[in-house]
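Apologies for my clumsy wording, but could you write out the amino acids of a protein and the tokens describing how it folds?
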Amino acid sequence: MKWDYDYIVIGSGFGGSVMTCRLVEKGYKVCLLERGREWKMHEFPRRPHEVRKNMFWDPIDNKFGLMEVRDTPESDVMTITSSGLGGGSLIYANVLYKMPEDFFKGWPGNINRQTLEPYYERVLNVMEAKPYPYDTHPYYRNTPKTTLLKKLAEEMATPPGATEKPSMVFPPIGVRFEGKFPGHQTRNIHGALQSRCNKCGDCDIGCNIHAKNTLDLNYLFRARNLKEAAHKAEVRTHAEVTRIEKKDDHYVVTYVIPEFPMQENKFTAKNVVLSAGSLGSTSLLLKMKRYGHLPLLNKWLGKKWSGNGDFISLIFKSKHNVDGTNGPVITGSIEYKYKDYADGYPHGMFIQEAGFPVGFAWFLSGKVPQFSGLAGLATMAAHHVKKYIFKVLKIVGHDQINIGDEMAKSIDRAEFTKRCLVLLGMGRDKPDGEIQLRDDDQALIRWKIDESQEHFTRIRTEMKKLAEMVDGVYVENPLTHLKKVISVHPLGGCPMGDSEQTGFVSTKGEVFGYPGLYVVDGSILPTSTGTNPSLTIAAMAEYIAEQIPEKHTVKTKDKMEA
């Protein structure tokens, strides 16, 4: 039988994009299916009506936008994931952090920091990631939130239980700083057009000038344009996979256009790579097991879930200028090294400053009226009434003709946004959660904070200290007090293991019991990464792709080995 493709890749995030690129380089015929749309330059929603229509992914309510926010009363976690070509790279905060060596404890197949080091470097090179040029360029040095985080890190004492004093780190970030001026457009090493970062803070809602090194501009751009490839990648957006079936020596993949869910389309392939993320991949496979399409999936499906210790808080009324609208969302990180949990599970955590878009600051200013703006508006109105009365009574006045200053005073100063420091924390929580299906096939996460309470106590304590250091008011996510967390880094659900007795997939990413069916995304990580996980997910994809033999060698100097 002749199959439609050698490989069908489902999902275009840090696993799927890497796999698509490397499989094309190896000479395979590859089709990439992505449920969301392709977002080109200046297409991300910004105007209010565009945001209402195109920001969120909620197909049941006819929304097919950029990000999906999932929450149910019975779930212990609220999650935020992406939809669109490039997957999570479209809305993540650009940070590409290597996982510390001791955090690999318990990983299967002798996979450790040394194993992944060359693959880490390969991803960083392909994505052209570099540390924020705070120390080398005046334009980027003028980033108040970065200056404040650096100052706080220098002044901090060693916390109880820590093995050393916390330190400020500038990790590599996937942002373009090349160009003669902010916004200057040049080609990246793959030929895609990008702009130099203008510090707009839009990273998490889609970068409209493509200063963000998203996967559609590097790995996928290469896969779609490699001249020497036997087959360039075929990319289909608006393609949501609903079924995977094993038929003899191949797989049948069924997908629908989300806007027209009743019309099914089918493709066949010798191999399938599922890269829809922790929630997407796991929930799809759970449904395949429930309905008998892949009945041999083992007991580890859905297990070893973690939220990567994600924790968010705000510090209001800082005595320092923060100006969160100035700079990429994250530029630096305070790294904490702690003694292990009592059971020997390694612990460490990271606190990073977070920015937000200028438009969000205007939104808050409109929603939270301030006395200065209201007083200015009232004063300007009174002056206009006075001028009208003078005109009617033919009284000669000597007021200023230029009213620019009056108009400026009618605008809110937004001091609460200017002096608001957003803190993002993450670290080593316990991977003891489980993704389950409700009766209506919707995924929910069962995870208890109790076994990871030491992490959350430590991160809350340190964030409160930072608030005290800036004389600010500390406010944290209230759901935490209900033992519910918000996770932007969901991991696990299809954990790696040395055998089917210890995991769902092998260290080659192949599902036990189903040769040719791979899972390559954050769901296969057996523990939390502690750091931002994107780089580790991509490095694991590089590691897995390298173990797949070549079908046809792409003989070209252009082939990217690093």
Notes: The CA atoms of residues 13 and 87 lie 4 Å apart. The chain has a mean pLDDT of 91. The first strand starts at residue 5 and ends at 10. The domain at 5-369+401-547 is CATH 3.50.50.60 (FAD/NAD(P)-binding domain).
